[in-house]
Amino acid sequence: MSVQVFLQGKILGIDEFLFAPAERDHDQVFTGRSHWISLLSEVLPRALLAELGLAKILLGSSGGGQFLVVLPEESRAAAEAFLEAAAREIAALSDGLLRLLWSATENLGDWSDVRRRLGEAMNHRRGTPLEKGGFNAEPVTANPEAQDYFAGQLGMKLRDAESAGWSPETPGRILTTSGKHVWSLAGSQPDALPFARHAAPSDDGREPASTSTLAARATGLHTWGVLRGDVDNFGIRIRRAQTIEEHIQLSVMYKQFFAGELEVLCSMPEFWRKVTVIYSAGDDFAVYGAWDALIGLAREIERLFHRFTETNLKDFAGPEGKTISMALALAPAVDASLGAVFEEAGERLEAAKSADKDCIWLLGRTLEWKQFAEAADLKESLMRMIAEFGCSPQYLRDLCGIYRETQSKMSRRQARRMGGERPWRYHRRIRRILGAARPEGASERGDFQKARSGLIADLIGRSAVTVKLRPAGRVALEWARLSAE
After folding, report:
1. Which ranges in 70-128 belong to alpha helices (H)?
2. CA–CA distances in Å: residue 205 to residues 31, 208, 281
């Protein structure tokens, strides 16, 4: 009986490659690069099995920049040759920034032992990049057609392509028109590649909307942003898998959730003309679009993910992999680079996940999802003061000034020691701001007084002794200010 071999592949250098400068068509090149990386880890293992004449069922997990397949020992040498050819072209297309690495080990012992051996072999390859060719290894030759390939083939045509293909003549490329081996991109097909590719249409419907077009479709301030999300402690959840079957089940389950739910959500009426998907992977995603639509999308994804984990992970102990954190970065200008805003969103996400879990970085603050819901309700109350009681939008800027003044006057240590400031100062200032912002002679005075009192309590709490301006209140104020611009 032939010995089975587990082969694991990983793509390294993704961030450096995505953020590398482009000579022209910066946003299209960035989008094409992200699509290429997303599909490489899906297409390569499938093409490998097809080239070796092996069954599709030997595909373990794929996506998110890595893959796992099962091979007979006799196919190991051929698989090495296949991956070496793909690695050379991947390096050429990425100007040496991307590296395709792989490791293999026999299917002997428990899955935990197999996983450990795969990891050790992968770390050895990563630490010795010149091991095979030594100092005589051929230098990477950049492909001069790479940017045209990313911008034209993967940045534009892939949005409407019905399939993705692969050919041995171009082992590192994803083809959109033909190929020796072809896979459907239609989600309804049983063997379709899980690939979220929704793009908000332009005004004429002929191509994806530009960032400036998406900014013009925003409510309030005309700007756009990038929303990124990542499952908390996903790696720990995967490493706790006791068997290869459990490992594959978890990997496929998360990947299908993000690819499927993103595509469905973005087709909803409130999102389809305002949001474009950058990528979806095994445990994270990224989209860009009108800033107000991205906030609503974040709320919906968190709600669906919570339901997903409650249903599918109820038998798994521990909180790992059951919560999700996100970050929203707004473009500093309408013509800002998509890659630069994407990078900022990633930095904000890392900062949020370092400080907490199950949270979102939004408009200058990190909030738990419960606080995010409170901020959304408070934002509606702030907007009601304008829509129903005739307050001037300027009052939102004046209220934001209270937060800025408090931060400049009090350190965090002082605020913790004192428990906040004297409450009557804030009550008096907020009442004065709201009163001045409301036109004289406005009707429904009783309702206005009630709404004003409730708004003050939501912003600074209900304590009669001390008060601390709430983070959710600061986010709600900024949110309402942008909506009223």
Report:
1. 76-93, 111-127
2. 18, 8, 27
CATH of range 4-153; options 3.40.190.10, 3.40.50.12710, 3.30.70.270, 3.40.710.10: 3.30.70.270
Q: How many whole angstroms separate alpha carbon 4 and alpha carbon 60?
A: 13
Domain ranges of the chain: 4-153, 211-362, 374-484
Give the C-alpha separation, 163 to 177, whole Å: 7
Residue 376 in this model has a pLDDT that exceeds 80: yes
Name the DSSP letter for residue 106.
E
Residues 308-352 have pLDDT tens digits of: 999 999 888 889 999 999 999 999 998 899 999 999 999 999 999
Give dist(CA 326, CA 287) in Å, integer: 11
**Average of per-residue pLDDT across 178-192:** 80
Tell me the fold of 211-362: Alpha-Beta Plaits (3.30.70)
Closest alpha carbon to 9 in 94, 99, 81 = 99
Contacts of 44 (CB under 8 A, 6+ apart): 9, 67, 83, 86, 100, 166
Residue 77 neighbours by CB distance under 10 Å: 9
Q: Which helix (H) or strand (E) holds 266?
A: helix 244-266
